């Protein structure tokens, strides 16, 4: 009995502590607005770097007394961890990675498309016998689980008639996967820019397989509770992202310089990465829903998403166009 009581008390303490931490993480002003908005920036999202560089969101929110905090995401998996733990309000991910998280009840919505990239492909060392996806059978392939490169790998295997169990997937964060390829610890790598572009320029790596259509869109995601409570701030964030997108399109040389400086890249590498991004379609739409449905089917067949999930309903609930439609004319 005493043991049971102790467990109940411990549960209550933990529940109260989590509530206090959540409140501290998202303190509000007297008007009900948050004291701080927390966004991620990522080297795979060039517009996030431009926005961070120029401080346009800080300028917009200064009069409202709202601070801006930037947190670096090293991959979609990290951005999703931050969103799920309420460490950030807005996070940059690949669309398919967000879809997986949504299938696991992550409280997020995709409210903006920051690019249509070709940011991932299957990469091998320049001198290799691996010339196609089928040559990967029985090989070690590095990938960051839960990210677009991992999803790209699964789709590529499926298209080639292979199963994930036909290879050994080595779970490494993107930069570590690049190093593992160079050192010969793995035979191939599901790459991600800018690491992929860096190896291509500096180390002469080659592509086992490229398919831009297997790269899902880059989505800016917001926590659902933040969107429900602060819709006007969601629109404000989209407004400044639009400013960064338009500036990037009009100033590609300067945007590449910002990417090179922040990611500590050679200018040639930064230009190559930037050239693989299409910034022309920022409003979430049925096009993006359809792309995620196709990716979701492969993920479901691979066992990444549960078989009892309605993929069409899941993709439709994840892609939310209403905020961007109000802002982007």
Describe the structure.
This protein is of the alpha/beta class and 329 residues long. The chain folds into two domains: 36-117 and 216-327, Periplasmic binding protein-like II (D-Maltodextrin-Binding Protein, domain 2, 3-Layer(aba) Sandwich); 122-214, Periplasmic binding protein-like II (D-Maltodextrin-Binding Protein, domain 2). Helix content is 50%, strand content 16%. It has helices spanning 2-25, 46-54, 56-62, 76-84, 95-103, 148-159, 174-183, 195-202, 224-229, 231-250, 252-263, 267-275, 286-301, 311-318, 322-327, and strands at 36-41, 67-72, 90-94, 108-117, 122-124, 140-143, 168-171, 188-190, 206-209, 218-223, 277-278. The protein has a five-stranded mixed β-sheet with strand order 7-6-8-5-9, sandwiched between helices. It has a four-stranded antiparallel β-sheet with strand order 3-10-4-11, with helices on both faces. The protein has a two-stranded parallel ribbon with strand order 1-2. Helix 6 (148-159) links the parallel strand 6 and strand 7 (168-171). Helix 5 crosses helix 13 (286-301) and helix 13 packs across helix 14. The radius of gyration is 21 Å and the shape is globular. The N and C termini lie far apart (64 Å). The relative contact order is 0.16. Residues 1-25 have low confidence and may be disordered.
